[in-house]
Amino acid sequence: MNKKSVASALLLASVMMHMVSCNKDTSFHAASVDYPYFGTLFADQTQDSIIFTTTDDWSLLTPHSWIHIQGNTTGTVKESMAIYTLCNKVNFDENTTDSTRLGYIELHSYYKSAATYVQLGFIDITYPAYKVKSYYGNSNVPTKVSFALTDSSYMKTDSICFKARKNWTLEIKSDDNNTWVTADKTSGQPGKQKITLSMEENLSTEPREVKAILTSGQVKNEITICQKGKSEKKD
Fold this sequence. Notes:
The protein is mainly beta. It folds into two domains: 3-119, Immunoglobulin-like; 124-227, Immunoglobulins (Immunoglobulin-like, Sandwich). It has one helix and 20 strands. The strands form four sheets. The chain has a six-stranded mixed sheet, with no helix packed on it. A five-stranded antiparallel sheet has the order 1-2-4-8-6, with no helix packed on it. The protein starts with a helix and ends in an 8-residue tail after the last strand.
């Protein structure tokens, strides 16, 4: 997404506030998005909601094909001076683009407001921590990230921790098919996970690495596991 698109979406988020009007004819109007202000989702996270308040006829719409509003997208308010708070479930496609994307749902009523959603390009991996490769413009929203574990030559165990929103698998790959790293679990159901890695001691003076491919649903993230050479001193 280019900076102009991001700026437009952030502008929509900035005007998401309660708006009320009382005219001389005693009419009363209000419209606001109450949730989310700026919703953040992981790449395999496909469900959220939008909560809004209005006193007038309303409609919800989005220009994004990966956002799907559930239930009624239009409604009629028949009672004057009545305030309605409504909730619609929202489904999202899994983000398989390997890059963060930003979208929104507009509330059209007496006033216009919007809910903004940021769907990150990666799974909720809590260890190792991610390293940011790029950001959206001047924001602190990461566009692309990388994951890496670095261990000493004599290290025997390490771990990978994450929360999967879908069924998941973990595959260890190396260029030379050298299986010096094994995982105690390689698949499972949604939820928080801690995978224990067992490693053989590196007797070579050269460092070596493998890739751990974590897949949740259709989303894939790569974790680089690097083991230092034998010549390095113990910490």
